[in-house]
Amino acid sequence: ILIACAFFLHSVQQGGIIWDERADFAGVKNQLKFAGKVLSGTASKVYEDGFRSIRSDYEFYGIGTSFPAFKASRFIDSFLSGQPHTFDKTFSLILHFIAFVCGLGASWYVGKLVFLATGQRATSMFASVALLVTPFCIGYSFFDYKDVPVAAGLIAAVYYAALFIEEPRPRSSAFFCAALLFLGAQKIAALPLALPACVGIGLAVIKHG
């Protein structure tokens, strides 16, 4: 993990802004502006002013990371630093940090899932580390704030579903719902990926009454 963190810090210093950060920054800004018009009752053309721009500017992908990054960067840039709130300052850094944390989370949940299946701690640690050191996986964790959180949310949902199937508890189901919420916040179209896990939980509920 320390080595991965070192590589992440190096990527932050040497890397740059990926191509769609500017578009997502503008998309979040436009949708918040539209939401303000709706709440204030000044949105005269709801479909034309709002839903059309949602499709063209944002497309609902990555909202679970872009929205909190936008709000946090706005607070840091505007209120703490007194600088203009633009996409190339803390917004980009926060997005990359969230992606990296989700990458670590995906690796951690893979280890927990393997341990749940095998009961072998050494095997689970090997699986977790193997995912973490895979160049494709760790590389995307440095900057891909859309796909990496989707992967982390899906792996977490599968883990909590397996945990619930093995021993149904309200806590496991609550964490499963939280993982689904996180997954859906990233991309609504990604929710069907967790459908087998949902079926497994449904069968477990029927079995245990």
Topology summary:
Elements: H1 2-14, H2 21-40, H3 46-58, H4 63-80, H5 87-118, H6 121-133, H7 135-140, H8 147-166, H9 170-186, H10 195-208
Helix pairs in contact: 2-3, 2-4, 2-5, 4-5, 5-6, 5-8, 8-9, 8-10
Compact summary:
The protein has helices spanning 2-14, 21-40, 46-58, 63-80, 87-118, 121-133, 135-140, 147-166, 170-186, 195-208. By secondary structure, it is mainly α.
Keyphrases for this structure?
209 residues; mainly alpha; 10 helices; 79% helix
Characterise the protein shown here.
- The protein is mainly alpha-helical and 209 residues long.
- The protein is 79% helix and 0% strand.
- The longest helix is centred in the middle third of the chain and has 32 residues, at 87-118.
- The model has no long low-confidence stretch (mean pLDDT 83).
The portion of residues forming beta strands comes to under 5%
Largest sheet, in brief, is: none
Per DSSP, the total helix count is 10
What's the total count of β strands? 0
Helix content: over 70%
Q: Structural class of the helices, strands and pairings?
A: mainly alpha
Unreliable spans are none
Q: Taking all residues together, what is the mean pLDDT?
A: 83
This entry's quaternary arrangement is single chain
Order of helices and strands: HHHHHHHHHH
How far from one another are the termini?
Answer: 42 Å
Tertiary shape:
flat
Radius of gyration: 20 Å
